[in-house]
Amino acid sequence: MSPAILAEIPGPGGPATVTSAPPTVERCTALPANCLITGGAGFIGSHLTDRLEKRGHQVTVLDDLSSGSASNLESAMAGGRVRLVPGSVLDADLVERCVRDVDVCIHLGAVLGVARIVDRPLEALLANVRGADIVMAAAAGAGCRLLFASSSEVYGKQSGEALTEQADCTIGAPSYSRWSYAIAKQFGEALAHAYRKDADAAVTTIRFFNIVGARQSSAYGMVLPRFVAQALADEPVTIYGDGRQSRCFTSVHDAVDAIDGLLGVTNSAAAGTFNVGTSLPVRIEDLAQLVISRTGSRSTIVHVPYTEAYGAGYQELGNRVPDTSALHELTGWKPRRTIEDMVDEVIGSQLQAMVRAPSPARWRRGKSRSTSVLAGGPAEPAWLPGVQPVAAAE
Ligand code: UDP
Predict the structure, then answer these.
(1) CA of 222 to the centre of ligand 1 (A)
(2) What is the CATH number for 327?
(3) Which helix (H) or strand (E) holds 147?
(4) Gap between the Cα atoms of 189 and 197, Å rounded
(5) What pTM does this model have?
(6) Helix/strand/coil for 38
(7) Most exposed of 23, 82, 123, 174 (fewest Cβ within 10 Å)?
(8) Is residue 368 part of a domain?
């Protein structure tokens, strides 16, 4: 993208939140004025929209609202710089119109969630593969920079510390639906590489490791929002398998910081693939205990066999930890939020959602619980400070 069509964006936060990049790295003299975020009404997308909007960018959100929601953009849209285009990344004409006059596109729109993938592998494969191609072709055609969101799923069964972006990706047989998402994201990464090489496209791939935080839906299997919802309702917390599998959970705010850092360096400096994740693996059994203790829940823990949770033929990922030195050397990025921060944020957001749309049964159970999460202080009987649960009055 020519620097001539980039505008200086004044506003809070400066050019990027991550400023400790080495002086040798080519930094953008100005940040992109017009951004397109596919999947911008979803979990990561809406947090990114919030961030870019606050800094004064014009943001177009393209989202089919299948798993995202316009309500995630409520505060971002109030400022008048964010517009929501309801539509699909599979609509090539619409995508082409959306990338016109855009400086950078961040492609987050995808069908995801293990439960959804194993349930409807065809939908997941086609939507993710075709969507990646349509968005990359449109961005390349318009000369617009593209950040493509991939996933640590591509590593598959790989285990171990410090997996670099060049480490082998070891997935199971394609006939296991579980791997459909990994296959689609691997294809997207290869496509990004090919568009860069053969079409001179400005594509950067970001490999996210288990991003969690407020607004993440529990509908399609994601473990942290599910555990929190179960704990807040004093229902059994369901650990699939033996619970000794681990994930490197990463805060959505650290993920947004990473995108922000990459936007702050030039396309040529950001060529390639970058891992974004914490280096602290958390066992699922430990996560369950942490959620129960921080919600003050009376929940018990139950173990559910994988076959019951996902049907026959499910295969578990390896216990893998990312090497993020490439991103750190380029932008100075480091994850800053702890697992406790992440758990508390999800608890807080689910409590707030309950206040907006209370379920009487949950409300009655929750009223008796002590939690310090929203009060930000020592445990005391505090549901939402200052909020009267009128709708759920007994
Ligand atoms: N999981 C679990 N209980 C649940 C949902 C998920 O024990 O109610 C497990 C799941 O089997 C996996 C881990 O939590 O081992 C992370 O699952 P998630 O779907 O969040 O992420 P992914 O498997 O895609 O990394």
Answers:
(1) 6
(2) 3.40.50.720
(3) strand 145-151
(4) 12
(5) 0.87
(6) strand
(7) 23
(8) no
